[in-house]
Amino acid sequence: MAPIAPRSGDAVFANVERVNAELFTLTYGAIVRQLLTDLEEVEEVNKQLDQMGYNIGIRLIDEFLAKSNVSRCVDFKETAEVIAKVGFKMFLGVSASVTNWDADGTCCSLILEDNPLVDFVELPDTCQGLYYCNVLSGVIRGALEMVSMKTEVTWVRDMLRGDDAYELKVKLLKQVPEEYPYKDDE
Amino acid sequence: MDGAAIYSLFIINKSGGLIFYKDYGSAGRMDTNDSLRLASLWHSMHAISQQLSPTVGVQGSSFSKPTPSISIAFSLLQHTKTEGMYAINRRLPSLDLSKSILAGTKFFVVCEPGTQRMEALLKFIYELFADYVLKNPFYEMEMPIRCELFDLNLLQAVQKDRVALLSR
Questions:
Q1: Residue B12 within a domain
Q2: Which strands sit side by side in the sheet containing B6-12, from one edge to the other?
Q3: Do B84 and A61 touch (CB under 8 A)?
Q4: Which residues of B fall within a CB distance of 8 Å from A148?
Q5: Strand ordering across the sheet containing A97-99
Q6: Does residue A179 belong to the interface with chain B, where contact is any CB pair within 8 Å?
Q7: How far is CA A184 from CA A53, A146, A181, B20, B95, in A?
Q8: Which of A62, A181, B96, B164 could bridge across to B130 with cysteines, CB 3.0–4.6 Å?
Q9: Chain B: residue nearest A56 by CA?
Q10: Gene3D superfamilies, per this entry (chain A) (predicted)?
Q11: One pLDDT digit (tens) per residue for chain B, 168 residues
Q12: Does the beta-carbon distance from B47 to A71 stay under 8 Å?
């Protein structure tokens, strides 16, 4: 039997169950608002959103692998392309572009022109330090960690803060080789 | 043999623990201890085979060009064409292995020798796992799977597969 061919982000997106985009956007808004009320500190909210994203990411990776038929990427460049073109498309319905590679190919930027999370959002003066979409960076970090890549994901540009696009900087810290046997404490 | 397409299914987590085991059909039922033992055996064999794999860095390690010592040690393992999936042909029921190629969870089914299209079933089981297990907010990662919806959908998939097999 021939290997199952990878599917494009569009194809997967067309086949999964979707919810109303507004419901999605408003639900996310409600979560962020509630976190602000509960935690009071904007910094804490950023952290909490990142942690929530991480928890989503470590589970989401399996769905991504199961439904997209993507197999092992050759290098980090391919990984970034797959996240931008297949991953974002599949789960958010938008695709991103990859630019700003550094010389050794371990750091790049994902640029989102369109971001369904922020459709109705205007940041008030009191929350200027808030990374509203911080959940996304957590998702990427969590998902990549499950496929043995330690990364650091930070926001460089944010339209809510007056920039012209959303830019996520993804930096590959190290690739953890799969090791057998696992140590007793793991 | 009551026409069972597969005899049993094992799902093994990253660190080798059996998180799901189910018997289908009447042949070869096992008690809990046996299934746990067998699961850790599959896990270790898979781990060893990866270490011995001549193609470094490819995790769905391939046995297409084994060195002599490897081929002696793993004459049991036969690589099928799909990356990350193996068939182990034994005289009795054969074993199909699929794993969530990169994320570390492994899926095994024991099936009738020569059963075709096991890859498709395994892939479908993986999708069910992603949908009904991982999306359950109360499922703890790496812990035994106790999700009714997963059981239900799995049973349907296996039965459908059995019907498809009989009609061939």
A1: yes
A2: B18-23, B6-12, B106-111, B94-99, B85-88, B77-79
A3: no
A4: 102
A5: A97-99, A107-112, A166-175, A149-157
A6: no
A7: 28, 19, 9, 22, 29
A8: A62
A9: B135
A10: Trafficking protein particle complex subunit 3
A11: 344 567 788 888 888 888 998 887 766 677 888 888 888 887 777 777 666 655 444 433 333 333 333 332 333 343 333 333 444 444 444 555 555 456 778 888 777 766 666 777 888 888 899 889 988 888 888 889 988 999 999 988 888 877 776 665
A12: no
From chain A, the residues in CB contact with B80 under 8 A are 1
In a 13 Å sphere around the CA of B83, the CA atoms on its Cβ side amount to 17
CB distance A72–B100 less than 8 Å? Answer: no
Asked if A120 has any chain B CB less than 8 Å from its own CB, the reply is no
Q: Is B64 on the interface with A (CB under 8 A)?
A: no
Give the number of C-alpha atoms closer than 13 A to the C-alpha of residue A109, restricted to the C-beta side. 13
CATH of the domain at B127: 3.30.450.70
Cβ neighbourhood burial of A39 (10 Å; 0-12, 13-18, 19+) = middle
Helix H or strand E segment including A15: helix A9-15
Domains and CATH numbers, chain A: 20-177 (3.30.1380.20)
How many structural domains compose chain B?
1
The parent domain of residue B122 ranges over: 6-167
Residue B114, phi-psi category: left (phi > 0), alpha (psi -120 to 50), beta (remainder)? left
Residues A16-36 have pLDDT tens digits of 788 888 999 999 999 999 999
Which residue is closest to A62 within chain B, CA to CA? Answer: B130
